[in-house]
Design brief:
Strands 2, 4, 5, 6, 9, 10 and 11 form a 7-stranded mixed β-sheet that branches. Strand 4 (32-38) and strand 5 form a beta hairpin. This protein has no helices and 11 strands. Helices cover 0% and strands 52% of the residues.
Length: 115
């Protein structure tokens, strides 16, 4: 099983980034996919979730209206569009796959929001 995140980087406050996660080694289309983030000195928190067919999404209150999660089951990818980023959202962003058997994690991609 592999989850490989990409798309992180340095962005100014108010800017945008599109994070991507490429999945392999499990039945992606049957898995609930999520994005989490972990800021320095803080616990990992759930940012957004999308159901297996993509019909339902859920977001942390702090990102509603600014972040959008999406998936492409044909390409085994899940994305997180992040808009109007804030400095306090500097964190490592992780892709998570929840299957019937277990949960899997990617290695994370660093997002730094700073002027």
């Amino acid at each position: 099983v592999q989850l490989v995140e990409s798309g992180g980087g340095l962005v100014q406050p108010g800017g945008s980034l599109r994070l991507s996660c490429a999945a392999s080694g499990f039945t992606f289309s049957r898995s609930v996919m999520s994005w989490y983030r972990q800021a320095p000195g803080k616990e990992r928190e759930l940012v957004a979730t999308i159901t297996s067919a993509g019909g339902n999404t859920d977001y942390a209150e702090s990102v509603k209206g600014r972040f959008t999660i999406s998936r492409d089951n044909a390409k085994n990818t899940v994305a997180l569009q992040t808009n109007n980023l804030k400095p306090e959202e500097t964190a490592v962003y992780y892709c998570n796959a929840l299957t019937i058997a277990k949960a899997y994690w990617g290695q994370g991609t660093q997002v730094t929001v700073s002027s």
